Amino acid sequence: MKRKFSLTHFIVSMLRFDFERILTFGYISKHPHRQLIFGYLSYIVVGTLLLCLPFMTSTNVGFLDHIFSATSAVSTTGLSTVDVSSAYTFSGKLVILLLIQLGGLGYMTMSCFVMFSLTKHFTIIKKGIIAAEFTMPGGITAKNLVKSVVGFTFFFEVIGALLLYFLFADKGVENPVGTAIFHSVSAFCTAGFSTFSDSLMQFRDDWGVNLVVIVLSYAGAMGFIVMHDLWQKITTRGYKITFTSKVIVLVTLALSALATTQMFFFEPSLLQYPASERFLMSLFQSMSALTTVGFNTINIGGLIPITLLSLTMIMYFGASPSGTGGGLKTTTLTATMAFVKSKLGQNRDVTLFGRTLPTYRIDTALATFVLYTAVICLSSLILTATEDFDYLVILFESASALGTVGLSTGITPELSSEGKLVLIVVMFIGRVGVLTFGFSMLHRMKQRTTQITKQDDLAV
Q: Transmembrane ranges (predicted)?
């Protein structure tokens, strides 16, 4: 007896068809962190191959530059060895935009969202990958987080695109629809790619464009945990904001204020502008470094050393967990500072704002802090050997690449092939390596918290 064809049978058949295995060239690992790394790597490989097609470029772009552009887009960095606005055609820019969107949403997020919408469940492996990619405090499940990621992403990007369309159209920008969509996605995903050759320098005094980009960037960088909390606070009576969100907002505001103040009062290149315009440029550039969005409205190469060092520190701290930004993360910074404070005070428990932090969270923060700092030191050391630039400029470039920021003093196109390869690796690590290492340590520490083991003494 023949089975009758139905839509349900078709959907089930399609779900059994493993698109993920095709995308990762047949590689499927039960270890979430390995799958996460290979998943992002597959995005870069596919993106590079697409960008190599003849109709994707309007000028001669080398293969290494295509790899650099694809890696920068997937890692939502924004550094580029070529002028994206002129080097790539509409098709090429569309590929870059798709890579930015995939990188901003995160590996497996969309497929998990579609799977849950159709079947109301995740596979164990997919749950593991989501847990490996996003930090989830108590009370927020993988299901809720995935729904929040997809929902808030498209909500902010659509609203941002509409607002930017009217602003760009009013300024007489060519193709305001496509330009608005591109910059809205790039801003929320904190990618920093622009279809303008000068980034957003021509809009340095435009409050409308600046404020829309600032809101999009902060929304993406502070993360989906904060967005989920705010939405629940608005829609659910008696809902309490999580401790994680409170820390994220507080630290983000504090770092933004400090960086903005430094640039407003002590950056000579901005003193020629009126106070209101100088404040807007200072706020935007500080926001751009902290959220790791990477847009610039001023000439970064013209900043004095103290301002470059200040921005380097801000890029080092970076955005927040479960967001689209990079960097060490604000929560990792606060947990590390809380640990140091507790040890200096000879306290056994590590507390932050009166809350005792779990041991495995502290271990994860310290491991991430050490690894992150080591990668910056090593990469800047290698670049110092391969490139002929001032060390501060190289350190700035390394911090921008690892933090997936995209700000540059202008040396990126002038890098040697060895230098480009170093930044490609660093950008990839910034997107998956530090997070993967941190969550791997978190998983191991969770398994050991219930075990009592004999430890060797070590004097440090």
A: 37-56, 94-118, 149-168, 207-226, 247-266, 365-384, 391-409, 421-442
